[in-house]
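Final report, Chapter 2: Outcomes

The project's central promise was a pipeline that accepts a single protein chain and returns its three-dimensional structure in a standardized token representation, suitable for archiving and comparison. That pipeline is now operational. To close this chapter, we reproduce one record exactly as it appears in the project archive, with the input sequence first and the structure output second.
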Amino acid sequence: MNNIRFVCLSDLHLGAENSILTRLAPASDGSARSMADPARASDVMVALAGCLRTLLSNNPGRQKPTLVLNGDALELALADVNVAAMVFERFMELTMKPGEELFDKTIYYNPGNHDHHLWEAGREAQYIERYLPTTKWGDSLEAPWHTTKMFLGEYDPVPCYLLDALIARMEPKYKDGTEPRFLMVYPNFGVRSDDRSKCVIFSHGHYVESIYRLMTGLRSTLFPGRHEPDIIWDLESENFAWVDFFWSTLGRSGDFGVDVELIYDKLQSSPQLKAMADNLADGIARKYKLPFLPGALERTFLNSFVSLLIHDIAHREAKHIDTPLSPDAEAGLRRFIEAFLLNQIRSDNDGNVPPDVTFIFGHTHKPFELVRTYAGYETGVKLFNSGGWVVDSLAPAPLHGGAVILVDEDLNTASLRIYNQSAGDSEAPSSPHVSEVIDNPLVQQLKLILADTAPWNAVTQAITAEIPRQRQNLGQKIQEQC
């Protein structure tokens, strides 16, 4: 029986009110909606930790696996840092309690779009603390680094100071900073077999959607003759400020940040979308006069234009729930794998592309597994999407769900699907199971572990109770006035 080497979780969104891993409590202002209660772990978080403990207890005496938090683990876009940090502490209490650690004490953190600011803070601190002291006055200085090496090397590891400081609060012996340690990798983190015939790559996946490449698209529109980047460093350097601003900092901008979250929630409701578009069109019409339109037509034009814009954003960001990937994401995934990922594999692997490549990503909140052919790869690339742990639509979304992705010492990869939402709130979500779309010895090993149904039933029961509560709370938030 092979040892499980890596456990990958993504899109936990710890601290977000719509994360099923964040406990909700009645709002202090007496309103009908609920708020995050970061002082206690949610029932789903407790049950998920129990599943992980059962899963990993089947390797007694063996090396603990390495945890890979593959993006959007902390919600920094739509929750205050203190709330996200406290919910993260609850997760650490359940999985990394001193003496009962489920994982190795080195944890890899690969930021996504909702926690991108952790990467910005880390790389800037590394530049100041680790690079500048190696130079002397008058030396030419390198630019701050935008990515880490795929297989680790010159520009890493990058410490995650926030998470290291948080874990040190749990146990006095951790205060020396030696263990546990959170090391950031971004945006692609890979592991190779000893003979380099196989590699598994972890990436959050936000760059598969065009909205996160907005600055690159804008630049190409303004300067159509320029060559678009095909190197991940260049893609990140063009778009990092935009990603960091909109998804990691704007939502924490005081009272305005609260309104940003409300706007995002309102993308779920067509009547609320129309009301929001009307408000915006009225405001623009009052403040600015359009010289090419008579007054009677001005508001009609603005309302149509604003409605079209907002509905386009809603479709991209919140409403595409009927396929695992939207057409935009399908095209973006192919572009990402055939250009950015392929070039980084070559540059970080002595020009060679392993014959066996597995790509693990999240971001979409819709888990799936498949093999797909891409230019530049000898065989089909195995794709695993880890889904997410949030309720972000008013209607039931059966393709939405969460999975734990596991990689063994032979780099076999398997998806342990914890749940998918049901087709209706009166039905239970799907029970935990191992996907056999991509079969290998690890898949068969996990099927035997799932034969003990007790911990898996517990997580299903917790999720069954939590999803309707989350959807009701989302509906109450949407009815709030802008």
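Archive annotation: DSSP finds twelve helices and 15 strands in the chain.
This record, like all others produced under the grant, will remain available to the consortium after the project formally closes.
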